[in-house]
Design brief:
Layout lengths: L40 H15 L5 H4 L5 H14 L1
Length: 84
């Protein structure tokens, strides 16, 4: 079974928009809020789009808005990827 991991939690490098250059993405950020990490709502929607494309897991916009941390994204994707 394929599993999304926290190599760099919730793939902040997969988010191409909204990154605050002062944010240290190399630290332990798995439970940090995306907003605290410098990512805006458009960046989270971009992440949802990339997860659908790369993992085949649909993340509706209304769900993406509730995924506030890298851990929440990991859990959401891995729960749905396991069902496939």
């Amino acid at each position: 079974m394929r599993e999304l991991t926290a190599r760099r939690p919730a793939a902040p490098d997969a988010i191409s928009a909204g990154e605050d250059e002062s944010t240290d993405l190399d630290g332990d950020i798995i439970d940090a809020g995306f907003r605290d990490l410098g990512y805006d709502s458009l960046a989270v929607l971009e992440l949802a789009s990339r997860l659908e494309r790369d993992w085949g897991v649909v993340v509706p916009d209304e769900v993406a808005a509730t995924l506030e941390t890298p851990r929440a994204v990991l859990d959401y994707v891995n729960e749905r990827a396991a069902v496939k």
